[in-house]
Amino acid sequence: MAAQKSPFDLPDVSGLAVGFLGGTGDQGRGLARRLAMAGHRVLIGSRSEQRAAAAAEGLGAGLPVRGLENAAATREADVVIATVPWEGHRDLLASLSGELAGKVVVDCVNPMGFDKQGAYALPVPEGSAAEQAAALLPDSPVVAAFHHVSATLLLDPEVDRVETDVLVLGDDREATDLVQALAGRIPGMRGVYAGRLRNAGQVEALTANLVSVNRRYKAHAGLRVTDV
Fold this sequence. Notes:
The protein has 228 residues and is of the alpha/beta class. The protein has one domain: 3-Layer(aba) Sandwich (Rossmann fold). The protein is 36% helix and 21% strand. It has helices at 26-37, 49-58, 70-76, 89-95, 97-100, 129-136, 151-155, 173-183, 200-217; strands at residues 17-21, 41-46, 65-69, 79-82, 104-107, 112-115, 118-121, 142-144, 164-170, 189-193. The two termini are 27 Å apart. The model has no long low-confidence stretch (mean pLDDT 96).
């Protein structure tokens, strides 16, 4: 009888190429920079190949990062992280459903609005951005992760370690294990399994609370899960 797999047994993901959709924003560039520093080949995607190339070049010389049009970045990547603005989330993913088929798709999009009272979570008909992605991409394992990681810290050359946990949600065990392991490639970061994809809505919404924390305390707060 085979031994039961421990929740702490994660795969070796060191050789994976990671693509970013809408990767020219702060979150995409920040995660791309840290994963490239960890040795991953990184493809930054954008609607404009020229803009993607400029974003890749801006991350620093010597890093294994290239800028491509979104579809080309998707085709070259083993795993794809969606960092597109919420307003363009549905249309972009729907347009790339063929290229994304069979690939693990990581959704870290936070549907949020802002008014005079601060940040607030936006309602999503499917329940969350990640569930919307899963509905649009039936041939791709979709994982929700990286919602609460500060882009400011990711991009700061003076920050060697990003001390935070990443909540990882999904319905495919191999896919969530892969994303947990990918998060762990960034020094100081840890991926923690946090449930099925149906629970992604409250994780995305929690970002609005962290925005409020950061504004009040002038911080770049993240999360830590205790006793795990």
